Amino acid sequence: MKPADYWPALRAPLLALVLGVAPFWIFFGTGNSLTVDGELVRQSNFNIAGLVLGIAGAVIAFRALREGGLLVRLLLAGIALAVSVFQIAWSVELVTRDHVRQVVGYPMPEEPEYNGPDLVLQHNMRLFAHQNDEAKVRERLIEDYGLLLARFASHKDYADACHGGTLRIDEDTMQLPDFLEAEVRSEIDARAQKLLEKWGPMPCGTKNSLSAMKKVPEAILKQRDVLPVLASAYRRRFVEPGTSENASRPFEGDPILKEAEEGNPTAQAYLGDYFYRGEIVKQDFEQAALWYMALVENTPKDTNDPDSLMLLRGAGAALGSMYQEGRGVARDAEQAVKWYTMAAEAGSVRAAYNLGAVYEQGLGVASNDALAAEWYAKAAESWDPYAAFKLAMMYREGRGVKRDEKRARELLIIAGKNGDAGIAALLLEPAMAGDADAQFALGTILYGKTAGVQDQVKAIEWFHKAAEQGQANAQYKIGELFAYGSAGQKDPVRAAKWILMAAERGLSAAQVHIGVMYQHGDGVPKDEKQAFEWQSKAAAQDDKQGALNLGILYANGIGVEEDLGKAEEWLRKAHALGHTSADKMLRELAEMKQKNADAR
């Protein structure tokens, strides 16, 4: 048969096929749809065009089949008939979108994303399990395992209904621990059933598939790795108490132990801390040392990664302490210095202070005041009160550093502001000997609430002793007490007297304060020129509040001739020094300049 003879033979079935297919893009009739959260969940259409064209296509295809002919003609006619019949059923909704999806299923979302166990969550779960009583731990166990089983059951039901039973989680991994009592198991099952009744079944849909087949499995995987920690602690503490406390492997089966044995430095840090502190398991310095050593071997030393540096800080400081005191390892001063140095270089304040003490006191090494001062200074940079006190004394005595009273004073103030009862005890001796800076620092600790040794009456006595010796910070503190009535009744006149003393000694905060008092006539006669002078002195010392106040005085012509250029200069200086209100003041100044320009 020639190619030219094919067209007459195939014309009828091809026409029937076109008539059956065309109505998928041609609609003439009635329709409505229901959308929930942006997803089409039901659509109802009656397509008259589809019905008419489908019938015409079916008739033509049926006639072609009856007439017979070439095999290709018959095959094409059969396909056209099937398509046309489907079109008829689709147009009158005998076949719907839901019927099709039941056959072909819904699109399966991507595989669940899971990056392995979250050690922080596991650690926090362990702390919970060891810091609460049996009732609370058991309640948490029931709640969390109930939620886990309910999530899996929901996932499984949806997979059966909408994805041919394809599961994203291995069902065998969802078993409850064998040691759980029957009563606990029953309560877990009841909790899971209650949640499933509350949630109800999820209808098949694209968004529901994303949730049930991806997001829910992700939550299951994360929860499945955390719950064994809770279960393990519950078993050791309440199901089989006393059997594991002295065991060589108290974390047997625990996911953190598994991670640590596989070389995860974070997990090794947790285990080292557990054994070192003895808060969760029986204290065992030998075990702590082994895990800390393993951590160091698995953590790069020449790194700027903050997580790695944090691990090195903790492990190095602990190992240094153990070698210095001979706990879990043989006493070895050189090893102590080695580990302290590693930790201090990684940023450990504790290790830097300990190194300072080792070199100052010659603990197993040759005494070296210069190195002691260097390490104390590193710790004091992070406001460590003990390092600040030690370094202050060295500056006072000129040991390891050049004698410097001003620097000693600054360090004692740091010690006072950040100190505790231990620092208060160290400050007492120099304070009793008449050291004004130590008296002010001691008063600062006693006046505050955080050190646990609050005694405001004694604090004020120390402030007065220091102030009477000309200690500017103490003078300003007494002035503040009178200004705000913190030590009794407000007394602006006495406040101004003490604040002025401190300002005359060059304390910028006092200069700012007395400037404001002169501006408003608070405790002193109102004197805007004096206000301007004192704010100028504070600003000249790079006091950010002084710079802001000086800009405002220039902008408003208070105590000085108005000068918007100078105002902007000082407000920008305040911004550069970090004052948070400077931006707002600069915007207001710009508006003021614009108004002046418009007025001209």
Descriptive account of the structure:
The protein has helices spanning 6-21, 48-67, 71-91, 97-104, 119-131, 134-162, 182-199, 206-239, 255-261, 265-277, 285-297, 306-325, 333-345, 349-361, 369-380, 385-397, 405-418, 421-432, 436-447, 456-468, 472-484, 492-504, 508-520, 528-540, 544-556, 564-576, 582-599; strands spanning 29-36, 39-47. The chain has 600 residues and is mainly α. Among the domains are: 3-104; 119-239. It has a two-stranded antiparallel sheet with strand order 1-2. The longest helix is centred in the middle third of the chain and has 34 residues, at 206-239. InterPro entries: Sel1-like, Sel1_AlgK, TPR-like_helical_dom_sf. This is Sel1 repeat family protein. Keywords: Membrane, Transmembrane, Transmembrane helix.
What is the arithmetic mean of pLDDT?
87
Name the structural class: mainly alpha
Our Rg estimate from Cα atoms comes to 40 Å
Q: Hey, roughly how much beta strand do the residues contain?
A: under 5%
- Count, helices: 27
Largest sheet: 2 strands, antiparallel
Shape: extended
The parts where pLDDT drops under 50 for at least 5 residues are 36-41, 244-248
Order the strands across the largest sheet as they lie in space.
Answer: 1-2
- How much helicity do the residues have? 55-70%
Roughly how many Å apart are the termini? 99 Å
For the secondary structure, the number of strands is 2
Question: What is the succession of H and E elements?
Answer: HEEHHHHHHHHHHHHHHHHHHHHHHHHHH
